[in-house]
Amino acid sequence: MRHTLRSWVATFVALLLTFGASATTYSILPAPTSIRPSEGIFRLTHKTPIRIEKGLENPAERFIEDVAPIVSLKAPRIHAKHADGIHLALDATLHAEGYRMQITPQAIHIAGGSEAGVYYALQSLRQLIVQHRTAIPCCEVEDQPNFAYRGAHMDVVRHFFTVEEVKCYLDILAAHKLNRLHWHLTDDQGWRIEIKRYPELTEHASKRNETLIGHCLRSTTYDGIPYGPYFFTQEEIRDIVRYAAERYITIIPEIEMPSHAQAALHALPWLGCEEQQVEVWTHWGVSPEVMCGGKETTYEFLENVLTEVIELFPSEYIHIGGDECPKERWEACEHCQARIRELGLKDESETRTAENQLQSYLTGRIERFLAKHGRRIIGWDDILAGGVSPEATVMSWQGSKGGIYAAKHGNLAIMTPMDYCYFDFYQTKSQEGEGLAIGGWVSFEKVYGWNPYEGLTADERSYIYGLQCNLWSEYITSFDHLQRMLLPRLAALSEVQWATDRRNPATIRARMEQMRRLYELYGWSYAPYYFEGRE
Ligand code: TNX
Questions:
Q1: pLDDT per residue over 214-261, tens digit each?
Q2: pLDDT digits (tens, 9 = 90+) for 326-368
Q3: Domain 31-143 grouped into CATH 2.40.50.140
Q4: Nearest CA to 412 among 402, 398, 422?
Q5: Is-contact 173 91, C-beta < 8 A?
Q6: Is 419 in the pocket of ligand 1 (CB under 6 A)?
Q7: What's the 472 CA to ligand 1 centre distance in angstroms?
Q8: Omega into 488 within 30° of 0, i.e. cis?
Q9: Active-site residue numbers?
Q10: How far apart are alpha carbons 321 and 256 in whole angstroms?
Q11: Which CATH class for the 149-503 domain?
């Protein structure tokens, strides 16, 4: 009798392991390439040693910090001969960001294609620990990302976020295996990066007199409250760049040119066409005040700024903005028109106007300057209008068409189409309880169901460098609100970025319940709508 009971239990457990349950017993998000359940439990205690290969100190230390709220582990040791504990090693045969993780009752063996691969394995392990605490069910996981570029964007101009908040944002990205932060540092409403050569920028352009109340399409009321000075010193930037690197995140700074630059024009009026005084903008939207594309002094300024920027940011890519550049000032400017004549630029079509080609000339000059320093540019898809060099990487935001056009012409593209990737949009159709947002509708489900390859042939797919969400902060005044716009939608995006063709909709809800526990453990705010079943 006892025997039958035991075999019944055994059969039940085996069934549980092989069917459905396994996917949520091992709740990992984004979905790994494969999870093979096995029998037994690994018991994690404060005595569990971490045994590493030399050079893997950083991922080990990050892991110890990450799991500290659950179990306090001792510093890693370098000899790996013993059979117990958590073992971290490199295996160059694996994908650079990939890993293999074997959990047995005796030990956890992790091999990564690089330090980053080991780090991602430990992110997965952390998720299992949040789910199961110290009794981790055994399994073997294999994993690697689909997209090389897995980004999120952060706007610290429209509203500012502190060093600690930027670091928390980075922690959140890392927990979802993202590897790029696109950091929007300059715009019409503020200049937020210290440039030693031009102290006027942080002195005068890092603050505005007041801020719009309500939506920019409907309101002309301002709060009368000075905003700023807010900016990051170079020392703070170095600290943040280091913090990101320790989490295998590259920060791509964005210095907007020639548009979205009214704050810089306020501090340095000679940057504009007419050199008249303009204010740091207090409204949202598209300002006509742009840098002059004709005067040589604009180019000198940009090169001087970028010289300091590339010293601060080791990233191969620098984002040069280039979006929404109204050309009315250029059309009326003698310097711009003289430059257009000198270059022999003519209106060729509705989009290839002489002025749009002048913007392409500016983009091209800056691109060549950066190339001399071993760097490349990313620009918003607007830079396609007047033509781009084959080396430029295009960030497609006005739908996917810019990215598709780029891919068809052999340019790399990063997909950030508004309809799926604008996390400043509303998260529910009813908008109930959401507060003011810019507009639109990007729900968790919508992000999760997005096909980033739509409209591309198999060949063209290889030009899609990656995917990113954009989180503009016009209507987001607190870090708490910022997190609620990011989470949980970032989780949906991360599975599209990492596990594009092996998304697992059957288990996403259950896995999100575990992500929610993780968010709560670290005190990260998240929006409730998805969990309430509201779309
Ligand atoms: C357009 S997206 C902009 C931003 C705004 C955003 C609001 C892009 C390249 N430019 O300046 O903040 O819309 O969603």
A1: 999 999 999 999 999 999 999 999 999 999 999 999 999 999 999 999
A2: 999 999 999 999 999 999 999 999 999 999 999 999 999 999 9
A3: no
A4: 402
A5: no
A6: no
A7: 7
A8: yes
A9: 187, 260, 324
A10: 4
A11: alpha beta
